[in-house]
Here is the input.
Amino acid sequence: NFARHSLVAAIAAITTTGVALQAHAATEVNLGHTLSSSSHYSVGADAFKETLEELSDGAYTVNEHPSGSLGGEREMIEGLQIGTVDFVITSTGPLGNFVPETYVLDLPFLFEDYEEARCVLDSDLGDELLAKMSDHNLVGLAWSENGFRHMTNSQREIATPEDAEGLRVRTMENSVHQEAFRQMGARPTPMAFPELFTALQQGTVDGQENPITVIVATNFWEVQDYLSLTGHVYSPAVVLGSPIFMDGLSEEERGWFEQAAQASAEATREEVSRLEREGVALLEEKGMTVKTDIDVAPFQEAVKPAYEIFTSEYGNEMLERVQEKA
Ligand code: EAX
Here is the structure.
């Protein structure tokens, strides 16, 4: 009798749970980025999804959209502002077009190494820049990472700025970067990332610049023979949210998303570190000619005017504050 009673109770419980689950189907949010599903951004997207689904006990679920399937980085940022995209992991490449305060982070040779860059982004200054984004209709959630950028091309080995002269180099849609490459004598061609592989393949551009992480994740060795470890600029990434989605959340829910973004950034940074250790050997194995011992002083000298152009437009204050912390 007792057994029968509990069986009935158990069935009732299952039925109720079933009804409850139906009534509260998980709310789906989308998260986009430009890189492949084997990339450091996808590692970060997976961490975002896992953390959020766990913290919210399944109330939210994340649909990941890698490989630029929601558009290039500039387009996705616009999507956040109009509410067609909920979350994005993006480099700061096109972000300055929306939040000019972040341009400072894109200056060449600003940070010496990963430790320094991460330390500045994790400081109160980094928090301040994240908070600034809400003045521009975006929610800045966490500083993630893309990595130090290096040059690749299909024509020749680059050891000095002169070697880059006349090369058509794809840059991000970032005026600071375009200026730096112009100063080096290259011909910068701004372009959204999803168009880049084909442009390299068809020879519309000779070269591009990206971190080891991106070169590995995008199989650039198939279309680029030379890699020079110029490390000319640190490329931060950021986890951004749509204010249209986030403004509707309770305090507690908002906290879940913030923690998910934090977990995402941490997982991505770990993957960047791993690829920094292992990626160059892999690219050599794939047939790239890698120039490792680059004297960066002439490159630093060549891009100096980019600093003047930057400060004449945005002033010295932010730059000095970053340099003090670095
Ligand atoms: O954020 O556009 C770029 O070159 C970026 O490094 C890439 O989209 C990853």
Residues 34-35, 73, 90-91, 93, 146, 172, 193, 210, 214, 235 surround (2R,3R)-2,3,4-trihydroxybutanoic acid (CB under 6 Å).
